[in-house]
DNA sequence: CGTTTGCTTGACAGCATTCAACGTTGGTGG
DNA sequence: CCACCAACGTTGAATGCTGTCAAGCAAACG
């Protein structure tokens, strides 16, 4: 339900540039390295997870000329804010983001967490202004995809057009899965589903399927899952007591994946 | 947050064919009538709410040839089911639908209610199979828009392409609003937001802004809002006691819209 | 006219929230 | 290098909102 069905990554050396789990390195050194390689979609090791999925080599080179600029966003900074003019969508290249919306009375809702290869900013198409804030949860870099040019190019290449539509549709399906989670699951089920979804996406990017470092706070997890931070913390502790996880602050090791999975798929006890 | 910002309908005789609130007429007589008028997008009185928004007359005639077939769906029947092959998107012409997803363990979540001019089936693009069930809540008729042809045509006309993207983006923004509702609002706030959203959309279609007939059961409202049907019922009663609404089963009259609006925008009491 | 489906209401229970205190970690500056 | 501070995380106790279970009523349908 929460699962993004993302094609498996071409594993050619994806570990080359990856921020350490200690968070001590900042993103810029990584960015420099990529720039040195003159990175383009056609040679990006994320291309099997990102917009270029399924494009031919000539199509890729057109896309390369479109995705000419990159942007570095420091941890805690916004890639865009609600109300900003919408000009581009963004592909996460390195790092990690959250998107959130705010109601007039100040309540926030985290609407998603985005990692490498995932697109940000699709909400902006509907009104020409962004409808959420996108905040970097660690030093990050994104590819800037000017939207007008993306529309132009996808009128030329039906493969690109179709892939873009698939990505938007996938976001809709994902959102519906989150609605199911928020509308009908209990705290334990929500957190279990969340962890399984995260590890599945990380695994598709070449990371371990059983160990992960959370890039977000308990409060951010809680906002996404419709829970208070105390409930998130308590549920982590409960999972640890039950032998499902090992929790050390933001370092999580899944010790009983089947147990987690059973939680998600079980009706009320 | 829940509000779809939909342009106001051109009011030329939109009341001509409208199923009675008693539900005693079936949709087919209505359908016949429309067929007699040889309905096309270019002459449809929903065109300012639907896919054709902003298209020129020549573009509209192209769209007319694409949207050649219509389909009648009886109350309770499905327009499509989860897993069905995806070939078309559908525009609601008359009637009312719900979409729902089911988890493996049998839990359902209503993900939306669709009325005239709104599109159904966008979820299917991502995997070439529909990802939800679309169920008619009253006898309904939809325009069938073959998706492959829609892609073809929107490569020719950037206006159509852009409008289609806007519609998908608007669905994403709407979903995020529902997440906010499910994640952070209490029962009263959820129901108030739901009613305001419904009346706003109905009003854009020429109906009263203060009276409405619910096409869905308390259970379906509850599923959409992440509440049990008893809670929905109790909250309706509470609103009535407080003088916000007059509730007679599915007939609702809003007697204090400002009061409802205040509920949605107020932080916790 | 009887049956089914949907709606309302009451009593009670349970899960998540709230409020509060304390512990941990990482960064900063003396 | 260490002390301090701020942000984050954990845990306990009590409250309350919503769910659960149950009964009765109303409306719709054949």
From TrEMBL, chains A, B:
Residue ranges constituting the Cyclic nucleotide-binding domain according to the UniProt record: 51-121
Residues annotated as signal peptide: none
GO molecular function, one term: DNA-binding transcription factor activity
Alphabetical UniProt keywords: DNA-binding, Transcription, Transcription regulation
InterPro entries listed in its UniProt record: cNMP-bd_dom, cNMP-bd_dom_sf, Env_Response_Regulators, HTH_CRP, RmlC-like_jellyroll, WH-like_DNA-bd_sf, WH_DNA-bd_sf
Occurrences of domain HTH crp-type (ranges): 185-258
One cellular component (GO) term of this entry: cytosol
Pfam families: cNMP_binding, HTH_Crp_2
PANTHER family according to UniProt: CRP FAMILY TRANSCRIPTIONAL REGULATORY PROTEIN, FUMARATE AND NITRATE REDUCTION REGULATORY PROTEIN
Protein name (record): Transcriptional regulator
Species: Aquabacterium olei
């Amino acid at each position: 339900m929460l699962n993004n069905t993302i094609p498996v990554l071409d594993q050619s050396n994806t570990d080359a540039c990856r921020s350490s789990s200690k968070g001590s390195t900042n993103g810029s050194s990584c960015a420099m390295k990529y720039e040195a390689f003159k990175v383009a979609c056609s040679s990006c090791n994320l291309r099997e997870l990102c917009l270029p999925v399924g494009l031919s080599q000539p199509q890729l080179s057109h896309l390369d000329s479109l995705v000419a600029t990159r942007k570095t966003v420091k941890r805690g900074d916004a890639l865009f804010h609600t109300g900003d003019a919408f000009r581009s969508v963004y592909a996460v290249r390195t790092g990690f983001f959250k998107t959130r919306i705010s109601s007039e009375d100040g309540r926030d809702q985290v609407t998603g967490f985005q990692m490498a290869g995932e697109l940000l900013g699709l909400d902006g198409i509907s009104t020409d202004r962004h409808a959420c804030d996108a905040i970097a949860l660690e030093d990050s870099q994104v590819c800037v995809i000017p939207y007008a040019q993306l529309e132009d190019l996808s009128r030329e290449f039906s493969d690109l057009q179709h892939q873009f539509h698939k990505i938007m549709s996938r976001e809709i399906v994902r959102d519906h899965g989150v609605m199911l989670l928020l509308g009908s699951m209990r705290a334990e089920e929500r957190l279990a589903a969340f962890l399984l979804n995260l590890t599945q996406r990380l695994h598709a990017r070449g990371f371990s399927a059983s160990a992960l470092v959370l890039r977000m706070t308990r409060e951010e997890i809680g906002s996404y899952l419709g829970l208070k931070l105390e409930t998130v913390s308590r549920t982590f502790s409960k999972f640890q007591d039950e032998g499902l996880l090992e929790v050390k602050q933001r370092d999580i090791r899944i010790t009983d994946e089947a147990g987690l999975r059973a939680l998600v798929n079980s009706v009320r006890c």
